[in-house]
Amino acid sequence: MRIAPLILFMLYACTVSSLEVKSWKTSQGSIVMYYNTPEIPMADIRLVFSAGSARDGKRHGLSRMANKLLMEGSGDLNSQQFKNKLSETGAQLYAGSLREMAFINLRTLTDPKYFEPAIGLLISAVSSPHYSRPEVEKAIGDMLIDISLKNESPSQIAQEAIWNQIFKDHPYSNYPGGRESTIANITSSELSKFHASHYVAKNATIAIVGDLTEVRAKILAETISSSLPAGQSPLKIPELTEFIPSNVYIETNSDQTHLRIGSIGISRTDEDYFPMIVGNHILGGGSLVSLLFEEIRNKRGLSYSVYSYFIPTEIKGPFVIGLQTNGEKQNVALAESLKVLRDFIEKGPSVESFNLAKENLISGFINQIDSNQKLIGYISMMGFYQLPLNYLDTFSKKVEEVSIADVRNSFQRRITKDFAIVMVGSKQQELNQNER
Q1: pLDDT digits over 152-173, tens only?
Q2: The model's pTM
Q3: All domains of the chain, ordered by start, with CATH?
């Protein structure tokens, strides 16, 4: 017997105490997000900047390389010396860059013996990376290898292609890993210039989760922020002015065809955010219990797995359906996937699938915030997109408030009737997204 969503919500509310996330700004203009977890003497500190590939301009891969080299020599330490010092603290320090954001994350003990030198290395990495030519050349080689491997993966080719088809010349079409033609001649001075303009206090979100008092967290945030130039907040990413449906076939030597169906989705602050994520869970986000899985895999055997997702971003991000199928069945798989999607947009979900989706989302949310590492990801995201401080506390309530009509109406308003379609496989056939 299934538990009703309302009962699950009540159980969730009783199990999880209020997540008192606090926020303030440093004197340099950095946004700070703080949550105290005193149970274990550790802390996670994440610095997030609007410095992803959407900021690359025509120098594709510049943001990824600038981020990749943060820990390859900084201050008065070369790359190996930096790694040796980090090892002595027992801390974990890593960096990453995506389409919108770049980040650097420190996990360390809060004992001052280890904490202070670890924080010193974090500050050194983010404020004064060397970008020495030998390290740049090594990074170029590594990134070119990554691109070569990506170009051998039909799945990754399809993934990059669907972003390109949805966003065309928009900054979101910039692949975070860059392009061979630009990566090969990126210079140290370009990297230093990008760093100087993007890794600045007014472009920083500082997230702190762990065994640090609020007073200590404020001192830490001020110390980090003051180590950076004040700089300026970046210009807002422009909205996509026009979505143009398209059909693209990319030939490879794979016997399998990788299919992507894409359109414009939702932003992080979208008024339809919760109806759309509930609807997507029903359509293809709920894995084994989704409509797409039932119709495409279980009933028709067209694909081992099939899924759908939104990537909410600063502006409206992509909505994508993805699957892999035998090349001989690719057009049937496309037609059936489009039929499931269009029927869902027209009719909305059944009561049973709707209730199950809400149960899954509410009961599963606790698992997404049950560690410092998961919490640091959430609260840094909240700061980056300037979401309400009670976002985590009200998530389940917002899901519970969604109605079937909300799901149907939001999908009808927001998802286009025609789509960007990408197929990556060995046998090209005519693509027809109007087949039912």
Answers
A1: 999 999 999 999 999 999 999 9
A2: 0.92
A3: 20-226 (3.30.830.10), 246-425 (3.30.830.10)
